[in-house]
Amino acid sequence: MDLVLKRRAIYTGLKPFLNAAEMAPALSMWETEFSSKPNYALANFVTRCCTTDALRRIRTQILSALIAALESPESLLLSDPGSQVGRLTMSDESAREVVLDAKNSIFIALSTQLWAAVDELTEKSIIDFILRNLAHLKLSSEHANSLKDWFINRSTKFPCNFELATLQKLINLNYIALCEYYGPVKADRLLSQATHAVEAEAIQRQFNLHDLL
Q: What is the CB neighbour count within 10 angstroms for residue 35?
């Protein structure tokens, strides 16, 4: 595994646990001190990353996430954050706050409801199906990579406010994947249940939920 791919794996594993201020020095330390060492050295790396009591309490969880990321296929890794050697904080787009409009907020709520209705393995398969078809959305490379990162690690910020047509296509990809795994009858039922679950939020935000469908 080359340096960039390994850095993507380390970034993917750390992202759910470290904030932007913690991430840059952690990646810098990994690149300068641990990138050429065998994987068993990750335990020491994680120990040094856990600089607060809160992080120390989940040290085993962080280590497990890093090992899982290093064993994951490239398609499931977050985009390369670039070398952080010498940087004090992350300064990329993912560290900035995005104020979402109604349609993007409801898209997230609806998608989350759909994924919550299936088992974990099926959810991962649905996400993988969406990622394989992102190219059909004809997004800029920056937006495509940011969206991919969000689908893989939804604890990250949603990258931006996408146009309604893009959100419609994403919901449609969700639906197609559900049809493949469950058939159209159950897929329709799951979509109906998810729509009902977020209907109140859509009304509160004065957004016509069916515009997404």
A: 15
Q: Of 62, 95, 128, which residue constitutes the final position of a domain?
A: 95
Largest CA distance in the chain: 55
Q: Per this entry, what is the length of the chain?
A: 213
The whole-angstrom separation of Cα 147 and Cα 157 is 10
Same domain, yes or no: 107 and 90: no
Global pTM exceeds 0.70:
no
Q: The tokens of 78 are what? A: 């977050």
Convert the pLDDT of each residue in 26-73 to its tens digit. Answer: 998 898 888 988 888 899 999 999 988 889 999 999 999 999 999 999
Rg over alpha carbons for the chain, rounded to the nearest Å, is 19
Number of folded domains that form the chain:
2
Instruction: Say if CB 133 and CB 148 are below 8 A apart.
Output: no
Burial (0-12, 13-18, 19+ Cβ within 10 Å), 75: exposed
Q: How many other CB atoms are found less than 10 A from the CB of residue 51?
A: 13
What range does the domain containing 18 cover?
3-95
Q: How far are the Cα atoms of 112, 114, 192, 201, 202 from residue 197, in angstroms, in the given order?
A: 10, 10, 9, 9, 10
> Mind listing the pLDDT tens digit for each residue in 92-136?
444 445 678 899 999 999 999 999 899 888 998 999 999 999 888
Task: Give the chain's end-to-end CA distance (angstroms, integer).
Answer: 41
